[in-house]
Specification:
alpha+beta; 5-stranded mixed beta sheet
């Protein structure tokens, strides 16, 4: 069963159910039909006999009401007139007029000898078996004056009904299988049409997995049924795969590009130094260049690793309830010692602000922003770190009065490896703000920047209050 196609399975299942339903309905209708027809046969027997009662009359005198078409029999001191409307046989119902000792006076009874033993009984319907056939017998005593002692006996074979029923049954036996076959064939075709798009989906998936072309999409045309929705979901998935694959490739290419510069500097410095005999101070200078570039590479690699880990495995960073006010004071306290370019660093933090977060990451976020403010700050300038709460949020900001950022660069500075100011590019890795953004998002917050070139910048991080 598992090896069958979905189309075959669906068709098989509903065919089996259809056949079962049709068979059950057929037998139910047959048995119901039999009951109805039996009742009709019995009713027709009773009605025919009752109708015939009125067709028999008694006259003392032959002249009274004599006419050519009726039938006359001598009886007692007069005669019996049997109207020509008397139904001897109609629809298989036979009626006979007889005396109390069952002697036939008029009419027909095809099973007279077999029913002879059956006592006459007024108004009662009985069954009698004649050979393999069942007969219904209905007697009616005539009560009109002069007719006392006369009876009407009606008989009808049960097979009378069977004849009509078997005609219906025979027709059903031919028609129903034809209809069932038509339904199965129609279902098979519809199932095939409905499932055809799935073949296209699997073909597209196969093309992508074989050729690695993530630009491929499934095109089913217009539609909004389940299969179209499935194809849409697949296309969304392919889109996301393509994006993440492209951004991964971009990351690798950016990273190699960034690493190439320090490596080239080291190689060039080594080649230059080794060209001829150098003085110890020249060797020392060369080694300092190598060390500086080595440090740069180390920082770059560390930033890349941190960034990738945060992007790919955020679950590795656990969150705990922590005092953000203390954390901000501590980071500012540590970084104030640097006091590069005579820049002053102050911290205005509201007390006792708590957040559910990762201490290491939040420290990194704030120190990245403060380091940038130092790096792009002006001689003797200032950095102001502020922490406060608003109605539903916690706001952390770092303001400087440094070189500022051009308006056109603002949307790019959070991108990986993007460095807006070429005169300072040697200083950082270009990942500081990208990491800050990842950390902010990891805590459900948003980071933004306001800046005026030449006047300074303010980076603001807004976290939702998530303590409860
Ligand atoms: P970098 O390692 O170059 O500092 P970042 O991702 O931290 O990389 O920052 C990206 C760019 O944004 C920087 O190269 C710089 O041009 C600009 N930038 C960041 N912070 C500031 C700031 N406080 N003042 C002016 N420019 C800034």
């Amino acid at each position: 069963m598992n090896r069958l196609s979905l189309r075959a399975k669906i068709t098989l299942w509903y065919s089996a159910v259809l056949v079962l339903i049709v068979a059950l309905t057929y037998f139910a209708l047959l048995s119901l039909g039999r009951q109805v027809i039996q009742k009709t046969v019995k009713d027709s027997l009773i009605t025919t006999v009752a109708d015939n009662v009125d067709e028999v009359e008694y006259y003392y005198d032959i002249d009274e009401g004599f006419n050519e078409v009726d039938y006359y029999v001598d009886y007692e001191n007069g005669y019996i007139e049997i109207d020509d409307d008397f139904l001897r046989e109609v629809n298989g119902v036979y009626t006979s007029l007889c005396l109390s000792d069952k002697t036939l006076v008029y009419g027909e009874n095809p099973v007279a000898s077999e029913t002879a033993a059956l006592q006459l009984s007024d108004g009662s319907l009985r069954q009698i078996k004649v050979g393999s056939e069942l007969y219904y017998v209905y007697d009616k005593k005539l009560t009109l004056s002069g007719l006392e002692g006369l009876w009407l006996r009606g008989v009808v074979s049960e097979t009378q009904g069977e004849v009509q029923l078997s005609a219906v049954a025979r027709m059903s036996l031919i028609l129903l299988p034809v209809l069932v076959l038509l339904a199965i064939a129609g279902g098979y075709i519809i199932a095939g049409r409905t499932l055809r798009p799935i073949d296209r989906i699997s073909a597209a998936a196969a093309r992508i997995s074989q050729g690695g072309d993530l630009k491929q999409r499934i095109d089913l045309g217009e539609g909004s049924d389940e299969i179209h929705r499935l194809a849409d979901r697949f296309n969304e998935m392919f889109g996301r795969l393509e994006n993440s694959f492209t951004s991964q490739q971009q990351f690798i290419s950016d990273a190699s590009h960034e690493l190439r510069t320090p490596v080239s500097v080291i190689m060039a410095q080594c080649e230059l130094t080794l060209e001829k005999e150098r003085t110890p101070s020249e060797y020392e200078e060369a080694l300092e260049v190598v060390e500086r570039q080595g440090r740069k590479m180390t920082r770059l690699i560390k930033d890349m690793l941190d960034f990738t880990r945060l992007e790919l495995h955020p679950e590795k960073y656990k969150k705990k309830l922590l005092n953000l006010s203390e954390l901000a004071e501590d980071v500012c306290g540590d970084l104030a010692i640097i006091a590069e370019k005579g820049i002053s660093l102050t911290c205005e933090a509201e007390k006792e602000i708590y957040i559910k977060g990762n201490r290491g990451l939040l420290t990194r976020l704030l120190s990245n922003l403060i380091s940038n403010a130092y790096r792009y700050g002006r001689e003797g300038g200032y950095i102001k770190t502020r922490l406060k709460t608003a109605e539903n949020s916690i706001i952390l900001s770092v303001e400087d009065n440094g070189i500022g950022i051009e308006g056109g660069e603002l949307q790019n500075i959070f991108l990986r490896f993007y460095q807006a100011d070429s005169s300072h590019t040697g200083a950082g890795s270009g990942l500081g703000l990208a990491i800050a953004k990842e950390i902010t998002q990891f805590h459900g917050g948003e980071i933004s920047v306001k800046s005026r070139p030449g006047s300074g910048s303010t980076f603001t991080v807004v976290f939702p209050k998530n303590v409860l």
